[in-house]
């Protein structure tokens, strides 16, 4: 059964009277956009917390983690989009059809926990941004975040293109904010050293795991397959053309997201590392950028953080609907889902917990959720009875297995060190 969210997506129509080249261009443009919706999850407030903390605490040391994670993200999202195009179904639906009820139930429970961890990062980040910009207390700021993000979310089921345009606009604000900050820096002569893999103790491994969880986001692995399942139409040649367009969509969108993530770490490393300026929280980072780079950089940081929280919160709730419909064939009203998933964020903001620490820990939770989405994705895309002629090549499956092993291995190492240490 095709998800009702996907069914609401209109099929692009290209008028026959257009010249052939213009018609092809319109057809390509009509298929662009899903990866930009997905990309916003890769630059959510969790990325701000982990990437900026990585740069401030370790300089350029963990730059290689961001670059590697960005490349992994492109590959993973390609597999997810390919699954939707080849089968006309999304990943949760196919998990329900191909795995036992207990396995499906386990996958659903962890996916819901991942969604809540995602919402925690997004709500806290947007609330902190409103506090920095306008002095609004964190709890009322969270309420404003809920209202605005819900308004954006309401565009998704019925006006997909408008929803995508709003998300792309918010992504542009984030990119512009960090581009401005980067231009305020001097020569970056030592940045290349961060491309050499290495760690500096268990704390850096913990932070690297959070950076990985903030970059390879499990909830959008589910979402991307749903955003592309409506492209399962026409003959095999049509689906292959759709997949080629999707590759470009992914490269453009996640390339921009990767550039933003790299900029986050570089800005923090160049402006905050090795200084006496505090950099323990998002508020500290905002103040530190104001001290070292000027008020304009601090304002750009806060605006980018706000745009990130609002957009990513909408995308996170949208993916939650896909998860529930696919795994359980059930829907709940968006308003109720919005209230349930924002509850942990409100508890954090109402307590004395450090919002930035909660953000980093939420990204670690996300990292542990990646294998539960990635392993079924690799297993399903390697099966000819599921994918038909668009089944993975052996080399594609081998890369997918390698990514799953790396991510799972890093998580197990972190768990063992945390328990023993």
Question: Can you put this structure into words, describing what you see?
Answer:
By secondary structure, this protein is an all-alpha fold. It contains 19 helices and no strands. Helix 5 (63-87) runs parallel beside helix 11 and helix 11 (202-215) packs across helix 17 (355-381). It is globular.
Keywords:
single chain; 421 residues; mainly alpha; disordered N terminus
Write the layout of secondary structure elements.
Blueprint: H1 4-7, H2 20-31, H3 34-39, H4 45-58, H5 63-87, H6 91-98, H7 101-134, H8 138-153, H9 155-158, H10 160-183, H11 202-215, H12 218-228, H13 236-271, H14 282-293, H15 295-328, H16 334-350, H17 355-381, H18 384-387, H19 394-420
Task: Report a brief summary of the structure.
The chain is mainly alpha-helical and 421 residues long. It is 78% helix and 0% strand.
What is the helical fraction, as a range of percent?
over 70%
Q: SSE order in H/E notation? A: HHHHHHHHHHHHHHHHHHH
Q: What general form does the structure show?
A: globular
Low-confidence stretches: 1-11
Mean pLDDT: 87
Number of strands: 0
Number of helices: 19
- CA gyration radius, whole angstroms: 21 Å
Main β-sheet description: none
The class by helix and strand makeup works out as: mainly alpha
Strand content: under 5%
Q: Give the N-terminus to C-terminus distance in angstroms.
A: 48 Å
């Amino acid at each position: 059964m095709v998800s009702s969210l996907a069914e609401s997506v209109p099929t692009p129509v290209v008028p026959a009277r257009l010249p052939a080249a213009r018609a092809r261009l319109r057809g390509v443009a009509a298929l662009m956009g899903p990866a930009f919706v997905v990309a916003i999850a890769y630059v959510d407030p969790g990325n701000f917390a982990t990437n900026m903390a990585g740069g401030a605490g370790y300089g350029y040391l963990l730059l290689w983690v961001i670059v590697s994670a960005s490349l992994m993200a492109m590959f993973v999202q390609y597999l997810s989009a390919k699954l939707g195009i080849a089968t006309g179904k999304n990943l949760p639906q196919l998990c329900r059809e191909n795995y036992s009820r207990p396995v499906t139930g386990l996958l659903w429970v962890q996916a819901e926990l991942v969604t809540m961890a995602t919402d925690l990062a997004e709500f806290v980040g947007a609330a902190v941004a409103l506090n920095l910009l306008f002095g609004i207390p964190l709890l009322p700021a969270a309420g404003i975040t809920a209202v605005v993000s819900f308004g954006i979310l309401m565009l998704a089921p019925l006006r997909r293109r408008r929803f995508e345009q709003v998300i792309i606009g918010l992504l542009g604000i984030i990119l512009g904010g960090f581009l401005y900050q980067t231009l305020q820096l001097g020569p970056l002569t030592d940045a290349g050293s961060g491309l050499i893999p290495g760690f500096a103790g268990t704390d850096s491994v913990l932070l690297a795991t959070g950076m990985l969880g903030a970059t390879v986001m499990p909830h959008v692995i589910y979402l991307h397959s749903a955003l592309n399942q409506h492209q399962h139409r026409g003959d095999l040649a049509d689906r292959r053309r759709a997949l080629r367009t999707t590759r470009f969509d992914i490269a453009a969108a996640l390339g921009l997201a990767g550039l933003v993530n790299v900029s986050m770490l570089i800005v923090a490393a160049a402006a905050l590392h090795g200084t006496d300026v505090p950099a323990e929280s998002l508020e500290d980072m905002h103040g530190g950028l104001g001290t070292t780079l000027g008020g304009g950089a601090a304002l750009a940081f806060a605006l980018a953080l706000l745009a990130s929280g609002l957009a990513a919160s909408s995308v996170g709730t949208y993916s939650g609907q896909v998860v529930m419909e696919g795994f359980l064939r059930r829907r709940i009203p968006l308003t109720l889902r919005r209230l349930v998933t924002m509850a942990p964020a409100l508890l954090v903001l109402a307590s004395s917990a450090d919002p930035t620490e909660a953000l980093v820990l939420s990204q670690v939770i996300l990292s542990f959720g990646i294998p539960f989405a990635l392993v079924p994705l690799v297993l399903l895309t390697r099966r000819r009875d599921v994918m038909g002629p668009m089944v993975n090549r052996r080399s594609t499956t081998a890369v997918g297995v390698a990514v799953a092993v790396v991510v799972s291995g890093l998580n197990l190492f972190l768990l063992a060190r945390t328990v023993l240490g």
